[in-house]
Design goal:
Length: 399
């Protein structure tokens, strides 16, 4: 009998040839303007050749004020469409599908990245890394952000993508609106779950007005923010999942954590102290060393650590497929997760960095678990300005 992981799955009107998803992974490989490079095309061509059913590249910023990190992909301008089309064609060559992850980083950027104080739903939550408070968005800025998402989705259609994924997790702008920890407003955009959901609702409805009816719209949703005070909890995530179902969303990918408040909850495993401290300016290093070193041993990998979150939203999602990301490492666990209907698709990030052909190896019975040891040096590359790849054996020095 064929393993369920190698059966097809419908996501909206798109047929995914198997149950494997490449979870959006920041690459640091775009050109200075956000354009697609040959390195990006090569990376995703290789993953498609490795038989990954659905590929979601790293986040694409929809507006210049939502740009962050060293070399993100842009979808903020029509100038990006040509390169994005080449990326789509490289994935489609092997019958894999591709969704573009649309993102606005909100306060999770820096004044140096965008040339001004970053925007957020509220101004009360200070960035614990860069030590600034964001500026609260006004009605015009909110409208501009909604329109930027819709325009980006239209560009995704023109580039030939099979769908989009809205990044509603990890302390980026949509997550900031959804989370009671970040969103302290008491107007139409905050103060209740319905009002906090309003921004995402308007984004989805604006996209639906601009894309064909058969174009997939999915979301990446936090089921736990792990912020210092309560943000999104599994109970609130379930409420939001019901609202997403009512809007006709085609897939939900379950995740957790916040890059600036709970980095290690997002990517459990080893804490790469030396590599993370290396990225800090000299004056921050002593304190950073003590703070980051104190995290060691507290975030050991628990395979499928977002399963509880997936179970919490499942009663509200109906027949919407759920993709589960978070430490999936063995074929046995992946199979059990789908068989038990905790999720419909298995989403991975770090394993695909190390082994782009792991799906083929599973299919041919050459392996029954991934080689990734969750050392997290691949993700520590991001603040150091290095492109993502497996750095398990050697991490480059900035000197």
């Amino acid at each position: 009998m064929m393993n369920v992981l190698f059966t097809s799955q419908m996501v909206g009107n798109v047929e995914i040839k198997n149950r494997f998803v490449h979870s959006a992974t920041y690459e640091g490989m775009a050109d200075p303007d956000g354009g697609v490079t040959e390195s990006l095309i090569k990376r995703y061509h290789r993953l498609a050749r490795g038989d990954v059913g659905l590929i979601i590249p790293g986040f694409m910023y929809v507006h210049p004020l939502g740009r962050a990190y060293n070399a993100p992909i842009g979808i903020h301008s029509d100038d990006m469409i040509e390169g994005l089309t080449r990326l789509v064609d490289a994935v489609h060559e092997f019958d894999s599908k591709i969704f573009f992850q649309l993102n606005h980083t909100g306060q999770q950027t820096s004044p140096e990245d965008i040339g001004q104080t970053p925007l957020a739903p509220s101004s009360s939550v200070r960035d614990p890394i860069n030590f600034f408070k964001p500026r609260q968005m006004d009605e015009t800025e909110i409208e501009n952000a909604v329109n930027a998402f819709a325009d980006a989705a239209e560009r995704a259609v023109k580039a030939g993508a099979d769908g989009v994924q809205l990044h509603c997790a990890h302390c980026y702008l949509i997550n900031q609106f959804l989370s009671p920890f970040f969103n302290r407003r008491q107007d139409n955009w905050g103060g209740s779950s319905v009002n906090r959901f309003r921004f995402l609702k308007q984004v989805i409805q604006s996209i639906q007005e601009k894309v064909p009816d058969d174009f997939c719209i999915s979301v990446k949703l936090n089921t736990n923010d792990f912020t210092p005070k309560p943000g999104i909890t599994p109970e609130l995530a379930a409420e939001y999942a019901g609202m997403l179902k009512d809007l006709g969303v085609d897939m939900i990918e379950v995740s957790c954590g916040s890059s600036i408040f709970s980095y290690m909850n997002m990517c459990r495993g080893e804490v790469p102290v030396k590599e993370l401290v290396q990225s800090m300016p000299l004056w921050k290093k002593p304190v950073a060393w003590l703070m980051i070193r104190s995290l060691k041993g507290k975030y050991d990998l628990d395979e499928g650590y977002n399963t509880i979150g997936a179970r919490s939203i499942r009663p509200m999602t109906g027949d919407i497929p759920i993709a589960l990301v978070g430490g999936m490492r063995t074929l046995e666990k992946m199979t059990q997760t789908v068989t038990d209907q905790d999720a419909d698709l298995i989403s991975m990030s770090r394993p695909f960095i190390r082994e782009p052909f792991i799906v083929n190896k599973f299919k041919k019975n050459k392996k029954d678990k991934v080689s990734c040891v969750s050392c997290n040096r691949c993700l520590a590359a991001i603040p150091n300005g290095f492109p993502v790849r497996c750095y398990n054996k050697h991490f480059p020095s900035m000197v």
